[in-house]
Design a protein that fits this description.
By secondary structure, the chain is an all-alpha fold. 77% of the residues lie in helices and 0% in strands.
């Protein structure tokens, strides 16, 4: 299961890297590399924890995001959420290219810290709820 997790995570990070760096037109963007590293490490840590403590939930969360039994409203919600997430990454890259993205260092650190807080909340959710699947089941 961990090998499948690593493959899925690597593919997700690769897609996110393309959505960030292609619009930016350059690879020398430390903030994007830090973002991708934080996403990778947090995703891997969460997956390893799930593998040890709730392998059924890990297996459920690794299923495709779109499934046959999924209600149509959930499918549309996920399409919107994935589109907004991808668009946000593209806009970050475009802003880097067009405006130079002069974000103060303290604000970047605050953003990275808030990402860690969000991953802690996600981890707490998984510990509290073994039914936290990515797809709604009724």
């Amino acid at each position: 299961m961990i090998l499948k997790l690593v493959r899925q995570l690597a593919l997700t990070i690769a897609v996110m890297a393309i959505l960030l760096f292609l619009p930016a037109g350059r690879l020398d963007w430390p903030g994007a590399w830090l973002f991708l590293a934080e996403m990778s490490l947090a995703g891997l840590a969460t997956g390893v924890w799930l593998d040890r403590h709730d392998p059924e939930l890990l297996a459920e969360r690794m299923k495709p995001i779109f499934q046959r039994t999924q209600p149509s409203w959930d499918r549309w919600f996920l399409i919107l959420a994935v589109s907004l997430w991808g668009g946000w990454l593209v806009l970050m890259g475009l802003e880097r290219r067009l405006a130079g993205s002069h974000l103060p260092f303290w604000l970047a650190v605050a953003g990275a810290a808030l990402m860690l807080v969000s991953f802690a909340i996600i981890q707490w959710t998984f510990q509290s709820n073994s039914f936290a699947a990515a797809v709604v089941r009724i």
